[in-house]
Write a structure and sequence with these properties.
17% of the residues lie in helices and 30% in strands. It is an alpha+beta fold. It starts with 11 loop residues before the first helix and ends in a 7-residue tail after the last helix. Strand 5 and strand 6 form a beta hairpin. It has a 6-stranded mixed beta sheet.
């Protein structure tokens, strides 16, 4: 992801595909796409791809945006999440992005601030 220029803005197309690392520096996944709250304009989730081989068998999990921080030295994002935390997150259904109760459980699970408050 390019960090050229003076601004703090980045295109969502530059975020998609960006690597995510553990705090120790281990590559744990990539950002597949972002979910943005239509009313506030805040990024709510990074839907991350975990596992798989060249995209086959990859699992996608929405992770609260507040659990990621950009790490210039790695040209990617870092997080304190573990694979076990991601695998143990509340199971999502097809309409997860319209279910506030599910979102609340997910934010509580990850210990992340709720973007809608």
């Amino acid at each position: 992801m390019s960090t050229e220029g003076n601004g703090s803005l980045v295109s969502s197309t530059d975020v998609n595909g960006t690597a995510v690392y553990s705090r120790e520096g281990t590559h744990i996944g990539t950002i597949d796409h972002l979910m943005i709250d239509k009313q506030s304009g805040k990024v709510a989730y990074a839907v991350m791809g975990f596992g798989g081989f060249f995209g086959l068998g990859e699992e996608h999990h929405p992770v609260p945006w507040g659990k990621l921080s950009y790490d210039v030295s790695r040209d990617g994002f870092s997080t304190d999440l573990t694979e076990a935390e991601v695998q143990g997150a509340p199971e999502r259904h097809d309409d997860w992005h319209r279910d506030r109760a599910w979102e609340q459980r997910v934010h509580e699970h990850y210990g992340a601030p709720m973007y809608w408050i």
